[in-house]
Amino acid sequence: MRYWRLGLALGVIFLVAFLFNSSSFTQIKEGNVPVSKLPQKVRQAVYQKLPGAKIISAYTENEGGEQGYEITAKVGDKLYALEISAQGKVLEFSEERGEIQEKTERGEEQEKEEKEVEGGVLYDFEGDQVGQMPQGWSAAVTGRGPNSQWEIQQMEDAPSPTHVLTQISHPSVSYHFNLAVSDDSHYDDVEISVWLKALTGRIDQGGGLVWRYKDANNYYIARINPLENNFRVYKVVNGRRIQLQSARIPLKAGQWYIMKVENIGQKIECYLDGRRYLEVNESTFKAGRIGLWTKADAVTAFDNLRVKRGEEEEE
User: Residue 12 is inside which H or E element, if any?
Assistant: First the structure.
């Protein structure tokens, strides 16, 4: 009788654990979410922050063990980016620059903006061995999970055929930022550009540039994401990613884009295919190394990374 009771007790424990884990799995499923499927607390948080708003898109992910929602909402002719917890707390909020604004703000000077950094140091990876990390580069990770994996691959449609640097790992962890950093680089004011192509990714896609990198928990990022159709600039402070500005633009996986960042003093300007989308003033980091970045399972190829010391604008 005693063994029967013990078996029954163990069975109940296993059943409860299974149901709990199944529920947890459902909660942390990541990806685009139809507006009708958003939790009521999340929708209410949007409408309280932005009365009269229309939710354009929603994306859910698990960062640092907590479920969150990235929302793009529209009020009149303005777009806004919000990060909201599952409990309905607004964690981050900023106006989101988008096509609506770009049509009126973009001028001839922006049309003529150079896509690549001119001069400086070029990393085209042509002299690096296929299947290996480039000489003088290190892999790192912000967040949870194993170290990132980067290797030189051959790609016929690369901007400078055929070698590219590709992030190839695909952990099923959301709060996991893959980094490849140039060990001997050190810049304060900097201009940096790179060609990149998103290949695959279920949790995340795309990637971008890292600069003023102190360590794996402290740096700036500019990145694109075809799953979310946005271009954003962040800072990572003590391992926590903080959004500085966002632009909503159509993006496609499998297509080459060129990203450029200029950081002179406190002024950060971010360009995609020659158009300036992001501009912020930020002073957290003064100098550091440069590198490349993807998130979670985003497999992305990079080529023709150019970097030079930034020049002060003439009065």
Answer: helix 2-27
